[in-house]
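note to self: dont lose this again. the chain is below, predicted strucutre after it. 154 aa total, dont forget to put it in the shared folder this time
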Amino acid sequence: MKLSPHFTLAEFTRSGTAERLGIDNAPTGSARSSLRTLCVAILEPLRKVTGPLKVSSGYRSPEVNEAIKGSSSSQHCKGQAADIIPTSGNRAAAWSELLRLNREGFPIDQMIIYEDKPHIHVSCTYERDPRHQVLVHTPSGYVNWDTYEGPLNP
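---
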């Protein structure tokens, strides 16, 4: 099932944890709708500039989220979030483009870049006004992007 011109439901529901533990990772209708919104409103515009994106983590059923010890309030469980890796390997360009989209008012709720991981987390919601929260994940916790001064290695 296509969620948008370049993204499929299968890539958002693929989970090694679900397969290994025999957990159903099929999203509900509302989560599928939220995934479609995330793809159309954020990921397609991002892809247009950065090129193809790999979804390393998309939808997570509550059981999958619990198995990986994810946050109980994870937007992944609502189909509102994805962890993405630019296949061009240019994570800095993807991050810069997300910052631009966020400044321009795209419905980005939260975006997180990791000091020591190759993916970028991005979420989108229409349940409430988007927070436009921009964070860096460090080994000691989350830091606001505007005050961050450390390295971004991967």
